[in-house]
Amino acid sequence: MDDTELHRERILRHVSPIITGRFIGYQASYTREVRVGRPLAVSVYVAAGIAQLLGSLLRMKPARRSLKELRMGPEFPVTPVRLRDDLGQTYEIEMHGQLPQSALHRGDLVQVRTEPQKDRTLPVKLMQVVNLTTMQPLTPRIPTRWSHLGPAVLLQAAAGLMVTGLLVAALLR
Predict the structure, then answer these.
(1) What one-character-per-residue DSSP string does the chain give?
(2) Could you say which DSSP state residue 113 is in?
(3) Which is higher by pLDDT, 135 or 33?
(4) 57 vs 139, more confident
(5) Closest among 120, 74, 124, 115 to 94, alpha carbons compared
(6) How many angstroms separate the most distant Cα atoms in the chain?
(7) Which residues of 5-20 are buried (b: 16+ CB within 10 A; e: fewer)?
(8) I need a surface site. Which of 88, 103, 139, 148 has the fewest CB within 10 A?
(9) Rounded to an integer, what distance in angstroms lies between the CA atom of residue 28 and that of residue 14?
(10) What is this structure's pTM?
């Protein structure tokens, strides 16, 4: 057994929804992708395609994204965060998104609200932090499926749905 095995710190993962402790620091970040469900992506893609078809008839050049691009959701940073409570136990929590760099400093007393993730093998997800040292509430920000689809595609989809609705109403008369 080598020296690192003797002094390895035990990290606790699955904990109560509220943890109070000292901020130890951030671990190395990595990115994770949010998938957009097939029904949502296909419906937005088809509705936007109708508006784009209408735009091409009027000689407009709308930006076209493939269904594959729409299905690949936004990537967001995942940063493991470590806290130590008064008993000396260390907790690892995943923070999805970003906080301002100056929000947390090593040794700050924090209270975090967590939520379990769908994959039970992953650490709990940080939902909100209150820095009790500065009394500053913080919430990490991550991109959403709607921000990934973008206002242009959503407006095209809304226009496509309106055109389809008008055509159906005209045909039913």
Answers:
(1) --HHHHTPPPEE-S--SEEEEEEEEE---EEEEPPPPHHHHHHHHHHHHHHHHHHHHTT-------HHHHHS--EEEEEEEEEE-TT--EEEEEEESB--TTS--TT-EEEEEEE--SSTTSPPEEEEEEETTTTEEE--B---HHHHHHHHHHHHHHHHHHHHHHHHHHHH-
(2) E
(3) 135
(4) 139
(5) 124
(6) 83
(7) eeeeeeeeeebeeebe
(8) 88
(9) 20
(10) 0.60
pLDDT higher than 80, residue 20 = yes
> What type of residue sits at position 60?
M
pLDDT digits (tens, 9 = 90+) for 42-70: 777 777 777 777 666 566 555 566 666 66
Give the integer Cα–Cα distance in Å for 158 and 68.
Answer: 20
For residue 92, what are its two tokens?
């690892």
Query: Would you state the structure tokens that stand for residue 66, as one six-digit string?
Result: 């493939």
Take residue 70 and report the two structure tokens written for it. Answer: 């729409």
Residue ranges in 58-144 assigned as alpha helix (H): 67-71
**Cα–Cα distances in angstroms (integers) from residue 44 to residues 4, 31, 118, in the given order:** 53, 25, 26
**What's the one-letter identity of residue 63?**
A
CA angle 113, 117, 118 (to 5 degrees): 155
Q: How many C-alpha atoms does 94 have within 13 Å on its Cβ side?
A: 22
Q: What is the pLDDT of residues 73-131, one digit of tens each?
A: 667 788 999 999 888 889 999 998 888 878 899 999 999 999 998 888 888 999 999 99
